[in-house]
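hiii so um. not sure if this is the right channel but i have a protein structure encoded as tokens and i wanna go backwards to a sequence. like what aa goes where. can anyone help
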């Protein structure tokens, strides 16, 4: 029974995916720094603390090229980053306490990957992942056609490979 259930789930996942080939594409990676503080009655044991975000800076990377405004990079993943946002002051943190304990400000780094591609007259932008971004960075200078594997219901790009491989 477990084997049958796994087979059905696998077939459902595969049925929702498709592949296509394109030579018009662009990958972006939005790199962001955000200051965050955790607030709770007890910072060590409260299961659902409140998180407050403060300043954020972002930088849009396109196809691995150095963007205007890049301050650091490329990092070990080939990404460029903006300047750090200003750290929240003790006054900033205390203004949002509302009777709770506050953690030290924590600097979060995040990256959002997307791939824009065109097939015929249709242009789509879908969420992607690091591996897709890196494959586009390698293929983009020569405009190598890519075979894209789309995710469930064609709502994301899961894989990109040079066409014909």
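sure thing!! here u go:
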């Amino acid at each position: 029974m477990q084997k049958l259930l796994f087979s059905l789930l696998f077939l459902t996942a595969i049925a929702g995916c498709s592949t296509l080939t394109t030579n018009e594409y662009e990958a972006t990676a939005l790199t962001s720094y955000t200051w965050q503080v955790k607030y709770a009655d007890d910072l060590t044991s409260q299961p659902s603390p409140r998180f407050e975000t403060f300043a954020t800076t972002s930088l849009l990377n396109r196809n691995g090229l150095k963007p205007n405004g890049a301050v650091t990079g490329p990092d070990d993943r080939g990404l460029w980053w903006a300047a750090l946002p200003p750290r929240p002051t003790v006054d900033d943190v205390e203004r949002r306490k509302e009777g709770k304990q506050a953690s030290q400000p924590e600097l979060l780094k995040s990256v959002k990957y997307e791939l824009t591609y065109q097939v015929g007259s249709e242009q789509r932008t879908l969420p992607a992942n690091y591996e897709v971004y890196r494959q586009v960075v390698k293929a983009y200078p020569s405009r190598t056609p890519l075979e894209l594997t789309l995710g469930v219901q064609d709502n994301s790009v899961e894989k990109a490979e040079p066409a014909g491989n």
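oh and The first helix runs from residue 2 to 15.
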